[in-house]
Amino acid sequence: MSLTALILTLTFVGIAIILSLWQHLQLEKDLIIGTIRAAIQLTAVGYILQIVFDLNEWPYLLLIILIMLLVAAQNAARRGKGINNIFIKILISIAAAEIIAMAILLGFHIVDSTPRFIIPLSGMVIGNAMISCGLFLNRLFQEIRSKKDVINVALSLGATSKQAINSALRNSVRASTIPVIDGLKTVGLVQLPGMMTGLIIGGTSPIEAVRYQLLILFSLTAVTTISSMILAFLTYPSIFTEAHQLKQIIK
Known about the structure:
This protein is mostly helical. It contains ten helices and no strands.
């Protein structure tokens, strides 16, 4: 794509701004800031990745992945305000999902162990694990608010904190995997996923593009489940006191 063609794509943003002005949605500032940030961030990342690809050194690769993990954990941690050490717990959950995914992909030689494969795949894994953790926390707070009385009754009857909140945890983990599962059911029928579309536009055979897309879909199915389940085990003790009483952080 030429620079001129890229600039012309700003027409889409312009349409959104015009509609926002027309309907008084007050989205113009956010649209402009988001567009500028996206352009700067992606351009900077593009140059950085090119350098890392050319160097092909593991320390630089690990540094990129570490930055991805930290940023993802920080973003998802905003959903869990009030829970002790939520940043660390999310970081562990996402990192575990990343390690397991890369161990399978590299251990079975499904992809080459080069930055050109590892960094993009890690970005997808970490990004989806981040979303899964965020969805889990959102649903967990909703579940506890709606079932607060049930949980307190269970605790008063002698149930442990894990027993009292077990149903809420299961529902929260299930909710965090819904987007990926729905995507599995409708992929190819409702939409062509981004990676597959990009490969086809780049000249890759549609059959080869499908294989890579299935690789991503199958790996993300495990990643979202793993990250949310680990976060569930790490998080629920922080919601209760040592005497198995529900803390007041859930209002």
